[in-house]
Q: What sequence folds into this?
């Protein structure tokens, strides 16, 4: 057997989950190959990458935020140092109050729901940039930030190539061969296959029994001379993320019945109207893009080994919290693969009944 074409692990998909899992495995001196067709649309390539410790309208602490966020910041800084680049920005968020009731909810729940450690300054309207439509003010949130997912994926691909751990291809599950516990693909042999293909995994027969619930999201990029503070992210129904100079990202929408990667005029109009409701300044839209979030119906990841297909694993379903959750969960996946450590029942594949084929 040609050792140059033989691997212990093949990871299908070089998104957030696949890239971080590959990082852990390679750092553990395992022979890993990440397989991806870079010409295909990718959720990671268009993800806004927001790290937010508070969840939705209920204003409660996000799932395992106390653990996920510190672990994520530590890992992203470690990778940045190793790759001599930057893609993570620990930027505070300004939560713009919707109305008086929303402001009261934030004030009350910041104590009652255990999110006090994330709460910063309460800004009155006259303290904020004049270009921001926030008549009731805004609340600063700490331990937040955003990952430039496009840069992260690009730099990780370069690193994987240097490790001889990247293969430009698509794994054809219909022609994938397995004999004596050894997989074969494109003249590459390997022992374990980990599916990290995001929404594409949901289209596989192997995982068709799982409750994927993909959500399409679209965002726009715009330029403006608004006097917004560049050291903050602005969040209401949508979010404004400063990129560089006078360029910003704004989004994102949610669509549950459209799983195409095509941008739509409906989303563009909704986003432009949303931006106009937040920004008291002229702006020019310079781009629009779409992605499919790999969400699940119970809003928990999908992790573990297939119930009957030996050595075939899934690491998926991270959804909109992937930036904060991926580093911790990838380490758990690493421990399953190397040490057979059980995945937490809350997000193990074992929580679902396999109906058979």
A:
């Amino acid at each position: 057997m040609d050792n140059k074409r033989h691997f212990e692990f093949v990871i299908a998909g070089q998104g957030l989950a696949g890239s971080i899992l590959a990082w852990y495995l390679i750092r553990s001196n395992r022979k890993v190959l990440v397989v991806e067709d870079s010409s295909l649309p990718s959720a990671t390539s268009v993800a806004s990458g927001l790290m937010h410790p508070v969840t939705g309208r209920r204003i409660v602490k996000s799932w395992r935020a106390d653990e996920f966020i510190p672990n994520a910041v530590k890992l992203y800084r470690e990778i940045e140092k190793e790759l001599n680049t930057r893609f993570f920005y620990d930027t505070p968020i300004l939560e713009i109050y919707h109305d008086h009731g929303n402001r009261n909810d934030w004030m009350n729940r910041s104590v009652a729901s255990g999110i006090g450690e994330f709460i910063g300054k309460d800004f009155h309207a006259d303290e904020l940039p004049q270009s921001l439509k926030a008549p009731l003010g805004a609340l600063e949130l700490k331990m937040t930030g955003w990952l430039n997912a496009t840069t992260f994926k690009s730099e990780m691909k370069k690193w994987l190539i240097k490790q001889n751990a990247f293969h430009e291809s698509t794994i054809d599950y219909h022609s994938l061969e397995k004999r004596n516990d050894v997989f074969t693909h494109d003249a590459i042999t390997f022992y374990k296959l980990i599916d990290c293909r995001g929404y594409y995994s949901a289209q596989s027969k192997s995982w068709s029994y799982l409750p994927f619930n993909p959500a399409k999201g679209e965002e726009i990029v715009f330029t403006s001379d608004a006097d917004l503070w560049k050291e903050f992210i602005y969040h209401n129904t949508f979010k404004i993320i400063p990129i560089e100079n006078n360029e910003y990202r704004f989004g994102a929408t949610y669509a549950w019945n459209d799983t195409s990667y095509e941008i739509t005029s409906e989303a563009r109009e909704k986003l432009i109207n949303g931006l106009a409701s937040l920004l008291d300044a002229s702006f020019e839209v310079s781009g629009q893009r779409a992605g499919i979030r790999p969400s699940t119906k119970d809003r928990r990841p999908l992790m573990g080994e297939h119930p009957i297909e030996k050595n075939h694993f899934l690491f998926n379903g991270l959804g909109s919290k992937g930036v904060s959750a991926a580093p911790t969960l990838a380490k758990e996946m690493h421990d399953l693969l190397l040490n057979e450590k059980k995945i937490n029942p809350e997000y193990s594949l074992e929580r679902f009944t396999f109906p058979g084929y």
